[in-house]
Amino acid sequence: MKTAFAAIVLVLATRASVGEAADAVYVSLQATQRNAGQIGRAFLLPEGTGTRVQIEVSGVPPMLATRPVHLYTYLYKGRCDQRSAEPAFALLDRVLAQSPAGVASARGPYMVSNKAPLPFERVTAGPFAIVVRTSPADGSVDIFCGNVGH
Fold first, then answer.
1. Left (φ > 0), alpha (ψ -120 to 50) or beta: where does 91 sit?
2. In this model, does residue 6 exceed pLDDT 60?
3. How far apart are CA 21 and CA 23, in angstroms?
4. Are 5 and 113 in contact (CB under 8 A)?
5. Which domains are delineated in the chain?
6. How many Cα neighbours within 13 Å face the side chain of 102?
7. Digit-coded pLDDT (tens) for 65-112
8. Which of 24, 31, 138, 147 could anchor a disulfide with 35, C-beta 3.0 to 4.6 Å?
């Protein structure tokens, strides 16, 4: 997580130093009632013709997810409280959560990063809801949600 954060800071600093706008959007992820007390955030970054969606969460209680933790990320049209019935995009290339303490860490923080096949400008214009769930084996429980765009 520290390495990923350092990479984001380096990209932003490099772009700022050459006069380009810093293209990154921070999204606060709210924990659901089942995951109360945890915090999360997402970073959206342009990557080629798509958008890198990096999820970082403080933890996932053991009663919600088996170890190692798998985090499933989805983009829904709409907002967290009023989203489409089905996800617009399932970002599932990488679901095994990484941790600074190692992949098999029983405690957080956890990070997972995937690429959405949608241009950065389109994702950040929204409205989209970023939903983070536990694995299907753990019941596909929504544990975080954050709103992107208007």
1. beta
2. no
3. 6
4. no
5. 2-6+24-148 (2.60.40)
6. 4
7. 998 999 999 999 999 999 999 999 999 999 999 987 665 566 789 999
8. 31
